[in-house]
Design a protein that fits this description.
The chain is an alpha+beta fold. Helices cover about 25% and strands about 40% of the residues.
Length: about 325
Amino acid sequence: MSDDLRISVPPDAPEISGTRLFDAPRALVFDAFAAPDRLARWFGPKGFSLTTQAFEFAPGGVWRFVMHGPDGRDYENKIVFREIQRPERIAYVHPGDDDADPVRKETTISFSQEGEKTRIDWRMRFPTLVERDRAEREYGVAIGLAENLDRLGDFVEESAGPVFSTSRRFAVPRDLLWKALTEPERMAQWFGPKGVPVIASEMDFRPGGSYHYGLRAPDGGPMWGLFEYREIEAPTRITLIASFSDANRGLARHPLSETWPLKVETTYVFTEKDGAGELTLVARPFEASAEEIATFAGALEALSNGWAGTFDELESYLVQG
């Protein structure tokens, strides 16, 4: 169990809560909740597994599933999502068994960013103290929550994979550096390796938006890429999912490696000191297989060289600017 894990069962409030810090970016931790195949790998106390029967991850959506206990018993469950604010908050209700008890439990899960780490605050509220104490006595809710957070920690650690990081300081203010990465006409002037021109640059710069771009490869053929923006905090931070793509915005494999991660979570951090902007890039595989993670881990030096060349192009553009 993590030293940072804390469980609270207050004597004067009908709730049970837990908090834990995860060594992973917020988007990755949030997305552990967003699909049934991911939930199946960690959701529930130690020794439990689950089978999802229906899943709609949206306000008003329903998640129906069966928890399979280590003693062979099955537990039917229904969750109704009330609020989903990516990547800050998920709220849902666990309905009761009859009309006299319409909400057996309300749950709110908050995700806060602490540097490159993420803290979860998982809070379950019951109708009364009596109901809370009965649930704790009969089902061991507090221990189950602790085990659930530990299983989530194992899943996140397994999913996060190796991390690539690089940074460079530029002789321009941060605001200009920010514009170079957030305006499509500027991106078209520098993005990509030296001698590989941009042939398409379409941007919808907002959380949930995307950037679809095309490069002219040395052999003359096109090479497409896609950014899916997750978090934008102007002018300090951008988190996105980067993928190779095709002309129709579909995801595609790396043209030279079938085992390269289909998705790479990438965070750009913008800082400034003495009038000079600094750009830090942090990237890691996202929703990757073991083979994809191994391929990424073996390419860290190549990534460093590749991004050094891309930063050279950015620096040249900014100087000429």
